[in-house]
Amino acid sequence: MIVPEDVAERLATARQRIASTGVDPAAVTILAVTKGHPIEAIDAAAAVGLSEVGENYAQELVAKHAERPDLDLRWHMIGHVQTNKVRSLAPIEAMWQSVERPSLVKELAKRAPGAAVLVQVNVSGEASKSGVAPDAAGELVERAQAAGLDVRGLMTIAEAAPVEVVGPQFARLRGLVDRLGLAECSMGMSGDLEVAVAEGATIVRLGTALFGPRPGAAGLRH
Ligand SMILES: *Cc1c(COP(=O)(O)O)cnc(C)c1O
Q1: Which of 33, 50, 98, 214 is the best mutation target for the ligand 1 pocket, counting ligand atoms within 8 Å of the beta carbon and taking the most?
Q2: Segment 102-136, tens digit of pLDDT
Q3: Helical ranges in 161-204 per DSSP H
Q4: Residue 190 CA to ligand 1 centre (angstroms)
Q5: Are 62 and 42 in contact (CB under 8 A)?
């Protein structure tokens, strides 16, 4: 069961982990990843003052938003977006963090003109990860900007690997963000948040660190 008291305690721990890198926790946005958790996770996020929530699946996001339409939350899509889901998400989304292909840019420009987006970059090169190759990030950013989207920055999911491997991957994303003149750098999850923050993350996406392990069923949906 998810209760605000536990989430508040875990949030304090997450902020301490950020501070341990020498970075001011107030300078890093914590996105509460509620995927796979029941609606109580949304309630708890709101109760502890987290204003940004993230979901991976369009249907789950739309359903949760429909249950809590009046909470003062900003909803982020952080998983693969099928083009035919854009229309139902458009009225809800504060930020689309997983834009990785021209067809999605085109659909967003049509259904959510001017939307705030991050371009997802595959910094590890693993075939299982989505995102454009680092060398192609600039091109997709330009395309999205030309389509009128508000490109705030880049997002990545690093490899599950030791710091020596993950650190340079995060550094690569940060370098791209700077080179492209963007602001936001969404990187780091529960397992690797210190490395990401040390390399310049502006948004960390935390699920397990805030809400505990996801109930088993959610894992099967990947
Ligand atoms: C699930 C997920 C997270 C959160 O993962 P945790 O390890 O539970 O913190 C962050 N980002 C993305 C894209 C995810 O799919």
Answers
A1: 33
A2: 999 999 999 999 999 999 999 999 999 999 999 99
A3: 163-179, 193-198
A4: 7
A5: no
